[in-house]
């Protein structure tokens, strides 16, 4: 079991509530108030978990600058009352930020009994590996 400090537990709580409000905002037809509140909670929880300096370094890495700008721009669009466009930008930014972890996530999900059948399809595993390496689909 991973031991967390009280500050990290607080950050996990913030991120958990942020994800909850984001999901509720999406389920309630892109309610901009819930999406904005979820974004604020999610982004404010990151520094509590990994530290302020590590959070800043993660978002300003040269290879992740495009993903960071789409993600933070999407949050700004949601707060400026453009929820659908903002969530689209955020989703693309998240994909760019975390595409290096796709092969690891697909390997982890392939170990789960029901999802393992889906993630062991030959085409899907190949696509996820190519996307994770930074390649294209063609």
Keywords:
single chain; 138 residues; mainly alpha; 78% helix
Description:
- With 138 residues, the chain is mainly α.
- It has helices at 6-27, 32-50, 52-59, 65-79, 83-98, 102-110, 113-119, 122-132.
- The radius of gyration is 17 Å and the shape is globular.
Number of helices: 8
Secondary-structure element order, N to C: HHHHHHHH
Task: Give a count of the beta strands, DSSP E runs of length 2 or more.
Answer: 0
Q: Based on Cα principal axes, name the global outline.
A: globular
How would a crystallographer describe the biggest sheet?
none
List segments where confidence is low: pLDDT < 50 over at least 5 consecutive residues.
Answer: none
Helicity level, as a percent range?
A: over 70%
- Rg (CA only): 17 Å
Question: Mean pLDDT across all residues, rounded?
Answer: 89
Structural class: mainly alpha
Distance between the termini: 42 Å
Please report which band the strand proportion falls in: under 5%, 5-15%, 15-25%, 25-35%, 35-45% or over 45%: under 5%
């Amino acid at each position: 079991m991973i031991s967390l400090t009280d500050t990290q537990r607080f950050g996990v709580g913030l991120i958990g509530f942020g994800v909850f409000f984001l999901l509720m905002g999406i389920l309630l037809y892109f309610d901009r108030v819930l999406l904005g509140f979820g974004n604020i909670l999610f982004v404010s929880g990151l520094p509590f978990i990994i530290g302020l300096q590590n959070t800043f370094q993660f978002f300003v890495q040269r290879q992740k600058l495009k993903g960071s700008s789409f993600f933070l721009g999407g949050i700004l669009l949601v707060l400026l009352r453009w929820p659908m466009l903002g969530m689209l930008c955020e989703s693309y930014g998240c994909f760019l930020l975390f595409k290096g972890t796709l092969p690891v996530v697909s390997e982890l999900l392939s170990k789960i009994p029901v999802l393992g059948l889906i993630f062991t399809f030959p085409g899907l595993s190949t696509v996820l590996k190519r996307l994770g390496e930074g390649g294209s689909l063609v």
